[in-house]
Structures are given as structure tokens and as C-alpha cells.
Specification:
CATH architecture of the largest domain: 3-Layer(aba) Sandwich
Number of strands: 8
Structural class: alpha+beta
Helix content: 25-40%
Bound molecules: flavin mononucleotide
Distance between the termini: 31 Å
Radius of gyration: 19 Å
């Protein structure tokens, strides 16, 4: 059998390599290459997959948890929610119809989603633009380009006045934006003083990571993303837009659903060539959470700040090969 590209390195996945004459199970396995391109805190990739016949299960891999930054696995679950939404997007690319059940088994809290394929469209219907948007999305870490965002993106962002929870809540007011950015920088400075936080973060972020298939590669001496992505100097211009991800409650189901909302927004932005910087608002950062709640119209708990812009120089994070994230069908967890 000819070895298809993308099967050992999800970063190289190409829609042209889709094995359209293979069984549904083999095709679903191919699509996992797209799902693992989801964002995750420190690029921990805390997910596992089981693909059997017409079904894909997505499980939490809690051995990849971050006990200091994320003691309740909230970020871990949001990351897995993003991965579920990306699996759904990959199914859309290739014309599948499916149903998703979140947390289908109360006796197994690590089983986060079961996606079952219900039908497929014509071979000709591949959504190549969506495939490109998935592959070209990445987190902005080295600052934004000093260029206005595309008008279509700005129009859709600026018209978003949703004030429900479980959404990405746009921040429209310049003063509010400045205050949130200033508070974000001071929260990060405080966290940097905490040796436990620093050591956990450094164990996933250092130069050697450039050869690893997880974590974040950082060149020594580069300024940290906080100083370049969260300064208030671009506030009020058309080069960036700020929003806050909100959850209805602090429960795994709400976190999953928020992760899915986040992923959909990131993919929509990526269609316009727009990416985002992200920063977690930990539960202990009460002050920042209070400021964000006061200054936005969403009535939920704010868990993540998302700042959209055009990426300057991209930092490409790697992904583990599928063999590392696939559960054997007979292996029970
Ligand atoms: C729930 C969640 C929280 C995140 N928090 C941060 C953060 O606090 N700071 C940061 O620089 N990136 C954060 N990120 C982005 C990840 O670092 C990024 O997704 C990961 O390194 C993979 O890189 P990629 O998104 O470019 O594929 C977060 C992502 C998620 C899903």
C-alpha cells in the first residue's frame, strides 16, 4: 500500500490525499489528522480517539493535564471541545452527515464525545476552502501585522451583539478593550512570579520543543507572547479585535461546548486569513475575570481572551502522529 502523506505527520495533511475509495473507518481515521490540529493549552494535545466502523469517540487524556495552570481540567476540556468541533469540520469538508453526542456515558467521564456518521455526499463536494482554513489556522504568538483586518471580518465581528453566555463575546468599546489588555498583562506578570506556574509552563515551552511533537518551540531570548500580543497599543485600531469566551457554568459539558464555539470562530476567522492570540483567565485571576464581566455584555463566566489579527511571523507547533493518539478498539478505558 502506498503510504499517504499526513498519516505520520498531521501537519502535512492534504485533502488531495483523502482515501475516497477506502472504508468509512479508514476515511474517518484520515480525518483525525485534521481534528488534532485543534488548539490546546501549551499544545498538550490532551485527547485520544477511538475509531470503529462509522463512529469516532474522543476521550480526554488526563495524563496530559496541567495541574498548576488548570487544576480542574477546564482548559483541557475546552481544548477537547475544539478538537471535537474540528473533527466535525473535517467531516463537513468531505461531505459527511453525522450526529454528535457529548458525554454520552455518565459512568465514563473521559469519554467526551461520540460522533456517528449517518451519510455522505457526492465525492465532488469537497469543501477545499474549509480544508485550507483548518490547516492554515495557528495561534498568534509573535504579534500582529500592522494591517487592517479584512472588511468582511470586521463587519461580521462588529455586528456581533450576542449577550448570551456560552459564546464568544465581542468587546466593542475602546476603553474597555484597553483596560482588559492592561489587566491581562498585569495578571501574566503576577503569574510569572509563581515558580510552580513558571516551571510547568517551561516544561512545555522551550527550544528543544522544536523537535518535539507537542509543546511550544520558543527561541531563547525571544520576547514572550504576552508583551507582543496583549499590549494595548493596537487597541481601538482595525488591526485587532478582542473577545472573551464565556461559559454558562463551570461544568465539563459547558466547557466542551465553549471549546466547540471557540473552534468555529477560529475557523471562520481563518477563512479570512485572520488568526488569534489566546490567553486563559484562570479561576484565581478574580480581578481580571471581574473586569471582563463588568465590561462585556455576556452574562456567563469568562474563561479565555481571544484577540484576532493578522499573524506576523508564524510559530508552527507540531502534532503527535496518529499512532500516539489512537486507542485500540478492544482497549477499554
Ligand atoms: C483552552 C486554551 C487556552 C489557551 N491558553 C493560552 C495562553 O494562556 N497563552 C497562550 O499563549 N496560548 C494559549 N493557548 C493557545 C495554545 O498555546 C495553542 O493552541 C497551542 O500552542 C497549539 O498551537 P496552535 O494553536 O498554533 O496550533 C490556549 C489554547 C486553548 C485551546
Amino acid at each position: 500500500m502506498i503510504k499517504k502523506r499526513g498519516l505520520d505527520n498531521p501537519r502535512e495533511v492534504r485533502f488531495q490525499d483523502y482515501p475516497d475509495d477506502a472504508t468509512i473507518e479508514s476515511r474517518l481515521k484520515f480525518l483525525v489528522n485534521y481534528a488534532v490540529l485543534a488548539p490546546s493549552t501549551h499544545n498538550t494535545q490532551p485527547w485520544l480517539f477511538r475509531v470503529l466502523n462509522h463512529t469516532v469517540e474522543i476521550h480526554a487524556d488526563r495524563s496530559r493535564a496541567l495541574p498548576v495552570l488548570d487544576p480542574e481540567d477546564r482548559c483541557l476540556t475546552i481544548s477537547c471541545g475544539s478538537c471535537i468541533a474540528l473533527m466535525e469540520s473535517a467531516l463537513s469538508v468531505f461531505g459527511f452527515k453525522w450526529t454528535t453526542t457529548l458525554m454520552p456515558d455518565f459512568s465514563n467521564p473521559d469519554l467526551l464525545a461520540r460522533i456517528t456518521v449517518r451519510g455522505e455526499a457526492d465525492k465532488a463536494d469537497v469543501d477545499t476552502e474549509l480544508a485550507r482554513a483548518i490547516v492554515s489556522r495557528s495561534t498568534i504568538r509573535r504579534g500582529f501585522m500592522n494591517l487592517p483586518l479584512p472588511k468582511a471580518f470586521l463587519d461580521s465581528f462588529d455586528s456581533d451583539r450576542d449577550n448570551s453566555a456560552d459564546t464568544l463575546c465581542a468587546i466593542h468599546d475602546e476603553e474597555a478593550e484597553r483596560l482588559i489588555l492592561q489587566q491581562t498583562c498585569s495578571m501574566e506578570e503576577d503569574m510569572e512570579q509563581d515558580i510552580h506556574f513558571r516551571r510547568e509552563s517551561e516544561s512545555w515551552t522551550h527550544p528543544i520543543r522544536s523537535r518535539s511533537r507537542d509543546g511550544i518551540p520558543e527561541k531563547p531570548g525571544m520576547s514572550t507572547p504576552i508583551t507582543v500580543c496583549w499590549s494595548d497599543q493596537d487597541a481601538g485600531t482595525d488591526t485587532t479585535r478582542l473577545s472573551a469566551l464565556c461559559v454558562v457554568s463551570n461544568t465539563p459539558l459547558a466547557w466542551l461546548s465553549a471549546g466547540m464555539t471557540l473552534m468555529q470562530a477560529l475557523i471562520e476567522a481563518s477563512r479570512f486569513g485572520v488568526n488569534a492570540a489566546m490567553i486563559n483567565i484562570p479561576s484565581e485571576a478574580k480581578h481580571l475575570a471581574d473586569v471582563v464581566s463588568r465590561l462585556t455584555s455576556c452574562n456567563g463566566i469568562h474563561v479565555l481572551l481571544v484577540r484576532f489579527g493578522r499573524p506576523g511571523r508564524k510559530v508552527i507547533t507540531q502534532r503527535r502522529p496518529l499512532v500516539d493518539v489512537m486507542l485500540h478498539p478492544g482497549f477499554s478505558r
